[in-house]
Structures are given as structure tokens and as C-alpha cells.
Amino acid sequence: MRMTNTTPVAIAVLLVELGPAFAFGCASERIAQTVARWSFAVRVALPSVLVVPYAVIALTQHMFRWHWFAVYAGLPVVIAWLLARAAAADPEQRGNWRDAVILLALGLAVDLRWFDVGWPSGLRGLANLLLLDAGLYGFLAIRRLSGTGFDFHLHRNSGKSDGKSNWRTDWKTGLRELLFFAPAVLVFGLALGFIHPHRNLPPVGQAALSWAGIFVFVAIPEELFFRAWVQNLLERRVGRRAALIIASVLFGLSHFNKRSAHFNWRYVLLATIGGIFYGRAWRERRSVPASTITHTCVDWLWSWWF
Length: 306
Description:
The protein is mostly helical. It has helices spanning 8-36, 40-45, 51-60, 66-89, 97-111, 125-142, 167-191, 204-238, 240-253, 265-285, 288-305.
């Protein structure tokens, strides 16, 4: 996500939108338990507050539209309602058609930029963060989907695939999959003319900020969607291997319009291969931090040297 129109109001809205992700990453189970004590009406209606960031940005930028206000007030409520119905219809969490509908809608909305027109130029990434927050609330607080691994606590190493993050293990897993992926991406990337090695040694501070930005704004949202939600649900229906392949192909296809006005098949192919290694990192201990580390390092190295 790139923000080029960084006014103080925009920065404040960005921090507000990052709040739910931070909260769920640190206390998702506690939040889910709290939400479960509320009435059905309150649980479903609460995410309508996600309209506030849109209203603030739109009003300050003089581009407020009532139909976009209705979309951002109503869509999170619809997501919460559908996932509440999915939780009731599918208590074993094997996957329900409502899960698929929501994931398809969220994925297409981001990939095809359906909602970008409602936001000022340079701030359209905020629209994607709102959808991410709606998904987090729906899947983690309402659906209470297990095994997502969206946990950024620092835990002692239990040696179990319990979805709890142990940063030492996550780094080990993430960097291992990076090393496994490197030969494949170099061979295919060079053969296809997709990557072009060049010398570029950025200042340490700039490099660190770039890594952190990719981790937070690119890798976490994509790993949450494709691994914690898509691959996680697919495993319950088609098994680990098929789920890994399907999720990776979908991840690759989501890059069809990146860096090109047409179908960028080279990007799709390499992103699909990358998705396999990201998915392997996630499923080892069902840890979003692990796959996020692999994903971040790949994007970061590519941005500087390829």
C-alpha cells in the first residue's frame, strides 16, 4: 500500500485503521470472547463504525458521497451477518459457501480496485485496510475461525503447530523457505526476462524502513488473506497438498495486473511459485508471521536488487 497524499489527517486515519489489526494480532481470542457476550444485533452492527475513516477522509478532501458512505457502513455489517450465519451452519468449520462468497468479494474488490474511485488519489490504500479490518472482525471475532495463526505475541517455543507465534522459530522457518525459493525464482525469473539484477546498496535506515513497510502494508494483509483464510479453509475440504497448490495459484492470479496493463503471466507464474513457499512457511506451525517474513524478504530483496 502506497500513500503519497500524507496529510496529518491521513496519517491519523491510517493509525486508526491499523488499530484492529494490531488488536487482533495481540489478543484475538480475548476479543472474540468479549464479542461473544454481546447480543447478536450488537455483534453484527458494530463494524458499521468502519465507515468513520472514509467519512473523515472524504469530508476533509471535499469528495464525500452518500453512496460510498452507505457501502462502507453496510458492507462490514453484511460480512459480519454472513459469517455469523456461517458459524451457526458450520460449527465444525469445514468451510461454508458464505466463507467463499466473502473471500471472493474481498479479493476481487482489492484486486480489481472496485472501491478506489471513492478515495482521493494517493490514499486509496486506506480503502483496502478498511476491507481488511472488516474481514478480521468477521473471521476472527464472529466466525472465530481456528488455525489462522494471526498471532504476533512473543511466546516461548512450545514445539507445537498451535498457531502461536514464536519469533525465533518464525524467523528460522521464514528464512529457510526464502533460501528454498531463491534458486527457483532466479532460474525462472532470469529465463523469462522478468528479473534484471543490478547493484543497489541502500542506506541502512532506508533499507530497514522499506522492510518494515513491506511487512506491515503488503505481506501481512496478503498472508492473512491467502494463507490464514483461504489456505486454512481449503485444507479442511481438499487436504494440505491440494490446499497449498490452489491457494498458491489464486495468489499468483491476484498479481495478473501488477506492473502491466495486460495479463502479466510472468508475474503470475513467479507469484504462484512464491506462494507455494509462503504457504509452506505458514502451514509448518500455522503461523502468519513465518510466511510474512518469507514474503517480506522476497519483495524487499527484489525491490533493491532486481
